[in-house]
């Protein structure tokens, strides 16, 4: 089958923020993994786990959403500043009722961002926090001159303001963030955003409203109608559940039947329909596409690993997760005209993670390698294609700096596929070709065998007479760059 790429058609720019991450105060998502504290035996820089940060730096995390999630609507930021011994110990009521000592707070978050080279995406507490509390947090973080909160920041050791790029006002306000109706939430959003201080007039903080849960189109319609003019982005949450329901068993991360491979692929592809339909509603209120769709929670959600705290959402990550990542990233790129940011849940140890840790050990998951292989698409121009795509194959293509990058995923459990690309008249050579694949449906990395599923050089790419032929094994993700 041949796909003709249409490089002469100028596509939208693929925002680098589509490759965003999310870390919540949840289980081992931050404590003991990303953040180990300065006094830890685990090698660290200012408390941040060196190996973990080094691995994440290689995938150039563009933005990190924090502190939740559901945790955000119980988080009182003042608990997390000042000398660590004085910080309030609270109960994390959403995630296992464990003690939260608030040792990772605003200063630690910005230290982590600095080490990663990532931008900030803070989610405010509008569920149990006041307008004043939110406004003062932004003052604390971003006020350059004299003010009570800026002075408090200085007292705590930080002279200059930080940059807050994105700011979420509400998380799942239709559920755990307040059980609000969309009409009510729209008014709450309007109120809170009114008091969001914008000290840097040249670089205003980008405001993200709480958007729909999955296919709640009425939520999108209502929020766009009543609050659309006051927001820059509206979020969407959609998780890939093998069984498609939030019932008792979601399905296991490993050792699952082949039927759950298939249903997982089907559920992952559903993201395309959700974005298309929500974007169509947005088009009615915002035909110029000023407002973006922000998919700030996505990824697989399985049963927790046996013997782990059910509130910690700890799951293994297999070649199946890699397929889900590729399918979703291809969809986000296809919708680059609306989708400006996406944040996979979550970066370390929670749900569909990039990294798993155990003590001082860490491993990179198959999902990590997909993010690694897709890096060239960041801020590139989307290239559209026409032609038949084989069943169970999805691809995306983009151009940047005279290079064309194609990422393609054959998520068939058994069948290999050969795919050809034409429309490559100005391209002379394959400069890089990588593959991630595995022999079994649940192949994964363990601390004993951390390199079981890793990215490798791909030998199945052949450019002849301006036609690129790719021989794709089953269960594979391939990225090829040409120039
Ligand atoms: O990512 C885990 C949780 O899923 C988040 O806290 C919440 O927003 C969502 O329900």
What's this, in brief?
The protein has 483 residues and is of the alpha/beta class.
| Whole-number tally of structural domains | 2
Looking at the overall shape, the CATH architecture of the largest domain is Alpha-Beta Barrel
Total number of β-strand segments?
A: 25
| Strand composition percent | 25-35%
**Low-pLDDT stretches:** none
Which structural class is indicated by helix and strand composition?
alpha/beta
- The value of Rg in angstroms is 22 Å
Instruction: Please identify the top-level CATH class of the largest domain.
Output: Alpha Beta
Query: Level of helix content?
Result: 10-25%
EC number: 3.2.1.55
Family: Belongs to the glycosyl hydrolase 51 family.
Catalytic activity: Hydrolysis of terminal non-reducing alpha-L-arabinofuranoside residues in alpha-L-arabinosides
Protein name: non-reducing end alpha-L-arabinofuranosidase
Q: Would you kindly provide a written description of the structure presented here, covering whatever features stand out?
A:
The protein has 483 residues and is of the alpha/beta class. It folds into two domains: 14-379, TIM Barrel (Alpha-Beta Barrel); 385-482, Sandwich (Immunoglobulin-like), CATH 2.60.40. Helices cover 24% and strands 25% of the residues. The protein has helices at 50-58, 106-116, 131-142, 148-155, 182-194, 217-227, 258-285, 319-334, 366-373, and strands at residues 2-6, 20-22, 44-45, 48-49, 63-66, 90-92, 98-100, 119-124, 166-169, 206-209, 233-240, 292-300, 339-345, 355-358, 361-364, 381-382, 384-386, 393-400, 403-410, 417-422, 430-437, 456-457, 461-464, 467-472, 476-482. The strands form six sheets. The protein has an eight-stranded parallel barrel, surrounded by five helices. Strands 16-18-19-25-21-22 form a six-stranded antiparallel β-sheet, with helices on one face. Helix 8 links the parallel strand 12 (292-300) and strand 13. The mean pLDDT is 97. Bound molecules: alpha-L-arabinofuranose. Alpha-L-arabinofuranose (AHR) binds at residues 24, 68-70, 171-172, 297, 345-346, 351. Homohexamer; trimer of dimers.
